Amino acid sequence: MTELAGLSIAIFDQLLKLGEKTAQIISDARSFNDDTEQYYNKIVDENNRTKQLRHILFEPSPIYGGLTLFENFDDDVQQQIKVFLGRLVHMLKEALDLLESRYGNNEAAKKPSMTTSLSSLSLTSSRSSQEARSPSPRSWKHYSRQSISLLKWSLQDKKRTEEVLKDFSDLNGRIHENIKLWCLASSIGLNMQHLKRLQNDENAKQLGFDIDATLQITATEVGRMDFSFELSSAWLECLRRATPVEERFALVQEDGKTFLMEHRRYDGQPDVAGEIDSRTRIRINDLAGLLSQPKEKVFCIPRCVGWKYVQSQSDIAFLFETPQGCIPEPVSLYRLLDMKTVKLTLGQRFKLASALAKCITQLQMVKWVHESFRSENILFFPSASKKCIGSDSDEPCIDYGDPCVLGFEFTRPEIDFSAGFADLSLERDVYRHPERQGRPGRMFTKIHDVYALGVVLLEIGLWQRAITLEKNQFRTARDPFVIQAQLLKQAQRRLGDKMGEKYQQVVIACLTGEFGVQNDTREDLKLQQAFRTQVVDVLERASSCL
């Protein structure tokens, strides 16, 4: 283990030296291309991230028994980090070799301008300029070696350098996200001192680890919150006057601001004071506390400002902030799927699918489960400034890569036991794993949220509500696995033609739960990594190309 740690530190150091040298060459090559500053800044940023990760992983601490965080990871994780770093070194070395082949042995002052047009390049032979202008055909051997080298760089090497630098940045980003996953989702993520280190360490803050660490600390401490997130009675009147939005939501106006209200039916018996029972109160307050925490945008979850029991309507209302710069006229994915006038481009569908997959993986990382992930709980707010491209009307534009995920009636920390309430609604059962339909017979796990995501991705790909994918809307389905089989059949028969083979494979993997994982850890760490690789990364790469 010590040898592997030493080797990984050495690779980190090599990566830092390569990064500094690459940045220096780009800085000197001021005519590298029009985006020289962009590439220079990118390499500097990636180098800073490398330094911060090195500090997090290899700074000995009493928290880890005098060892480093790296040494507290399992052997498998340590090996993966070493392999990832090796790939980074290889990529950056290729970019450096390409740059040095053009600039490495020249002084900056002698470097010709790369912005010079091809017509003015020194593509002349060593003969006179008059002879160079001769219309007679000439052989490449008559041109100077410097001229040919410059043309080769312009037409080939420059493009490859740009590609390598982009791939390097993308891979470094994936390594960053994987290390965050190992820090939070592995067994070390149960160590409260470790989480507080990520919460307070300056390097961890620069990497964004502190936000997710805080979420996990809050989830771990759920049930022990002293703070009440219940709204004051002054909110009751505006809650009663809320403007309905579809079936589950409403808009609330208060003090010149617009809030989104999600209401949940309270079927319990109020106490003598007309309030909800104490057990439900604790559960609701804990949930509001979790949802009120600051979260990265990738969670797709708006911030909750509190909750209130509206006795006259027997509803428990959750209040959320609405996105800035948007028109407060939300529409659900469920409704959009039924609107014949709405047709998303391939790029829009992939961006939406990618955003939702990232949402699920973020919830998994901080040890949350959703339990009610379905299209009616996915909302979009039209932009207040952007207009639809290609539209003659002033219709507001919806950014389908920026959904709001709600439906938090049962959302909870993974460590909390699922109540397992019976729900016989086919409209909702179609999104549930067969093990969770009707009266659940098994505790809710990560794979059940993955299944629900698969159903929603199938809807997006076919642009059709899941309940309509069977002619009788599954009313004759006696076995929960019949619904799963029908959804799989639809994905296998129709999805490839509409969305491509990669998207089809993603959906089938989610619906079957087959990610090639064996001998997983107690925290389902291997499943989470496989889900990132086979679903999140695939959708993200595809969406970035469209």
UniProtKB/TrEMBL annotation:
Taxonomy, superkingdom: Eukaryota
Example of a GO MF term: protein kinase activity
Annotated InterPro entries: DUF7580, HeLo_dom, HeLo_sf, Kinase-like_dom_sf, Prot_kinase_dom
Ranges of compositional bias, category Low complexity: 112-138
Region entry Disordered, spans: 109-140
Domain Protein kinase: 216-531
Protein name listed in UniProt: Protein kinase domain-containing protein
Organism: Trematosphaeria pertusa
